[in-house]
Amino acid sequence: MMKKLVPFTLAMALFVSTKTNAQEHRFDPPWNNPPESALNFTVPGIDNIPDLYGDIENPQLTVFFAGNQFMVVDDLLTSFKKEYPQYERIFVETLPPGILAKQIKGGSITVGNLRITHKPDIYTASKRAINDMADYFSHTQTYCYNNICLMIPKGNPANIKTLNDLGNSNVRISMPNPQWEGIGEQIKASYKKAGGEQLVKKIMEDKVKDGSTYLTKIHHRESPMRILYSQADVAPVWTSEVVYQKLIGHPVEGIKIPDSQNTTATYVAAKLKNAPHAQAADDFLKFMDSPTAKQIYKKYGFTID
Questions:
Q1: Distance CA 66, CA 252 (A)
Q2: Distance CA 75, CA 298 (A)
Q3: Is residue 123 within a helix (H) or strand (E), and if so which, with residue range?
Q4: CA within 13 Å, CB half, 226
Q5: Cβ atoms within 10 A of the Cβ of 216, count?
Q6: Which region is the signal sequence (predicted)?
Q7: Using an 8 Å Cβ cutoff, are 290 and 143 in contact?
């Protein structure tokens, strides 16, 4: 009997291990639709590069989007190419705005083993971030707005109701790092409005030290994944990010933050003074101001007026 149990036990262990491994990357990006190619070699958790899009070889237009706008890229580029078919090769990055700013100023970035030296034609970010680099741009225009909310796992197992609940010692938070995530400072401002400096210190110092507040490097990827993989109970994010995760069927919910404790971000598109493709940049800015582009942003939870 024992001899029969050994193979069965090993088989069950292998099955459980296989099942667990198969589930480990079930929510991993890229969440966008990849471009058509002769070979698609995307390996979840290893080779997926979710924040680099399109044609990196000799692009006719290069756009650096603040990372939280990754969800609009598919629809936006498809519609832009339809209206401006002369632009076939477009390269886009959706990294955190602070990282993109450093890339613009320094002239290059390395992701994994890939070094990128493309100069952007267009940079989109918050109004504050654009104003901080005003000397780099020849034209700017506002195109949409966004508010902060709380992303939680479906069912809200930690019973989060308000911002003050994030100060509880047993609540695990996925928090954007204010060092390079513009949303980080805005969330801190909301903490202060809700619970004063005491709540800010609790979340951003005490809980960081004990590990119950995790500071992300790229919140628009890490925060949803930490929620989806049960590594966090709550994540302050832009409203558009909850809208998108629900649109693609991921089990998350959102909790609204009252207007009195919230912050509205104003997004601005800017043309670089040294844009390599000046006409393409002008055409893209014109498109960003069109009803088509505005409706795409509205679809993903942004406010357009």
A1: 23
A2: 12
A3: strand 122-126
A4: 25
A5: 21
A6: 1-22
A7: no
